[in-house]
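Good morning,

Both structures are done.
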Amino acid sequence: MCNASVAEMLNPCLCRFFEDYKKNEHKEVKVDEFLGAELARKTITESMVSAEAFHKAHNLTRLTWRTLHIESSSA
């Protein structure tokens, strides 16, 4: 029986993903540690609020995956 948490078991896979996904752009990513779900949610929420403010300030329409999917389906 394994006593490791799911997060501990996934960390090597996640590190590998983040380190590998930029290789096609010839960029290097180094993952030192994961900082936890609470900080991730806070960061994502702040980014979404910031993006929404940017779109409103520049009178831009927000383009979402759903918008892209609908547009590509009707083409």
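Second structure follows.
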Amino acid sequence: MSILGALAAAVADEADAVAEAPNPIIPAIDEVIWGTLSFLILFAVMAKYAYPALKKAMEARSEKIQGDLDAADSARSEAEGLRAEYDAKLAEAQTEAARIIEAARSDAEQVRQDRIAAIEPEIAERRAQAEADIEAAKDRALADVRAQVTSLAVGAAEQVVRSSLDEAAYARLVDDYIESVGN
């Protein structure tokens, strides 16, 4: 029975060990006490030292964010002011450009009118000179024609005087005269 006795003793020891084993869901009382005491001490230290530092860091971060937002708002309003100033200057520049263009057009028209007015007397003088030249050429041509007609008439009269005035001679004389005037 020794094997059986030893086995019974081992089973009894094992049963005692199982009865004394802690519950895995509910901790032992001394662990609960020590855990609670550690938590309270750690909480007190954190509340005394860490919480103010965290609170200060959070407030500083909030102030920095608020400062950045205020700076962004002021930068935006300054940019809007600059844009309005730029738009006003641009409109002023466009107005000035339109005024300069209109002044240039007016000046160009005035220069054109002045040049036309300056050249018109010369044109009138040249026209008058051309008309005078034409009139002189016409007078010379008429004088030349008169001179030729006169010389032809004198030549015809000479021939009439030299020849007798019979009808055949007179017809021949007129034909010769007409032929010479035609040439």
